[in-house]
Amino acid sequence: MDEIRSIEHGARQALVGLGAELPMSIPDECIYAYYRDGKPIGTAAYIQNIGDGEDSIRIYIYAAKEFRRRGIGTKLYRFIMRQIDTEHYDVVSGAVIEGGGCDQAYEFCRSLGAEDWQALYRMRYSGPSFPVSIELVPYRDEYYEELARSKFESWRALSADYGFDAVPYSAREREEWRRDAGNIFVRLSETGRPIAMCSCGENGHMHGLFVSDEYKGQGLGRSILMYCINRAFERGNREVELSVLTRNPAKRMYLELGFRAFETEHYFRFSKCVKHGS
Hints:
Elements: E1 2-6, H1 11-18, E2 31-36, E3 39-50, E4 55-63, H2 72-83, E5 91-97, H3 102-111, E6 115-125, E7 137-138, H4 144-162, H5 171-179, E8 184-188, E9 194-200, E10 206-211, H6 220-234, E11 240-245, H7 250-257, E12 260-269
Parallel strand pairs: 4-5
Antiparallel strand pairs: 1-2, 2-3, 3-4, 5-12, 6-11, 6-12, 7-8, 8-9, 9-10
């Protein structure tokens, strides 16, 4: 007997054991399992991202390898789309990570009419430290408005290219930066104005690098990146990682410094009108 229902106690671990990706950020109440004779053989889940500029939702569909190409994935997809109020969201998306079996995942997404929307390179650097002399200061909350404005202007063109509805200021972003202040490094101008920044977590994951438009083209971004790589190594990390959209011009700089892509995550955008079917 087949049925799709909310997961039972212990089912999350069983689904992960089958190979499903279920980040801990997804609450149990947003996870459903496809049961056959009482045993989970697939899952559908979702996670919401409510932002100041754009509300999005990401869906996760997975069927155990031995049960694929039998319509189970399609049933899970239609089921999960009926559970969420898709019209409330600007974007409904899912992702496929290149690797074993990814061709089937591509085929599945396209069979559902999903748009091949964007791709993200995950890149890694494990080379030597860099000789760099640049002075950066720890982030302070008083820098937020100036940095947020500069980030918005710096990323405006790329956001438009990908169809993101970017906003210049966000209370949620400000709080995130405040909590991460110990990992954010800022470059000040000669007059003390914040003009660039980058975040480097204790685990060696880097993100959020940008330079104010009026200071671009001076090698500042490269110097900041090298500085943050050195700081990551000083913290005991043997390698650093970052993610970059495939059409982001910064990708070239990362490659020149020795970063190499080790994984590509392809994002698909789904129709918000699926409300029927079995």
